[in-house]
Write a structure and sequence with these properties.
Layout: E1 3-6, E2 25-28, H1 30-46, E3 77-82, E4 88-92, E5 110-112, H2 119-126, H3 128-142, H4 148-159, E6 166-171, H5 177-189, E7 194-197, H6 202-212
Parallel strand pairs: 3-6, 6-7
Antiparallel strand pairs: 1-2, 3-4, 4-5
Helix pairs in contact: 3-4
């Protein structure tokens, strides 16, 4: 048992009036120790520990060594090309080569940035159908009309529909990791559920060099 003992002083050894002897004061600290452990246990059980944050990135299957690389056919697709100086170039739909057999105009790169009226606006406009559907599901979830598990499942289905936006992210050797993370953040804000990182095609790289003057 933990305790503090304070010895009292006595008198009577010297000459003069003899004083009464003081008794020792003992304080039992055991209840204080128990209380400290109870408080420690309480704070440990009620505290919220920081959880590691992870980012999910989808990678396509690598082509075979002898496989001919051709522009992918993407419906409601957007291709983003990142390069140095925080520059972002993009084009919509599939990549169309010059002298297209169907007579379609060749693909040209357009430039945007990370401002509110830049990449974010482009993503929200192209992914409007999925955003509207998810917002409706969110309102139902707030009103307790659907369960949380059902809400999460329906949101994933909305992001994966054919009419939902698909984004291809491509970078050259001068793009920064920060810009890549910023793009993924914008995709999450725009509720884009289908996005992958792929290698840049030679034709895309030639267009990029023309735009940047490399």
């Amino acid at each position: 048992m933990a305790e503090i003992a304070e010895e009292g002083g006595g008198g009577g050894h010297g000459k003069g009036k003899k004083r009464g002897k003081k008794h020792s004061a003992r304080i039992d600290m055991t209840p204080m120790v128990d209380l400290a452990f109870l408080l420690l246990t309480f704070f440990v059980l009620t505290s919220t520990f920081s959880k590691p944050k992870t980012m999910e990135i989808n990678y396509p299957a690598k082509p075979e060594p002898n496989e001919n690389v051709k522009p992918p056919e993407v419906k409601n697709g957007l291709t983003l090309i990142l390069t140095k100086d925080n520059r972002i170039f993009y084009y919509k739909g599939e990549f169309i080569l010059p002298n297209d057999p169907k007579g379609r105009p060749a693909t040209q790169l357009e430039e945007t940035d990370f401002s509110t009226n830049g990449l974010h606006k482009i993503l929200t406009e192209l992914n409007k159908s999925a955003i509207d559907e998810i917002n409706q599901l969110s309102e139902k979830a707030k009103k307790k009309e659907i369960a949380d598990s059902t809400f999460k499942r329906l949101v994933m289905e909305a992001k994966g529909k054919k009419e939902a936006l698909t984004v291809l992210i491509k970078t050259d050797d001068q793009a920064t990791y920060k810009n890549f993370i910023d793009v993924v953040d914008e995709l999450n804000l725009a509720m884009v559920g289908k996005y992958v990182t792929v290698d840049m095609m030679p034709q895309e790289y030639e267009l990029l060099k023309q735009k940047t003057g490399q």
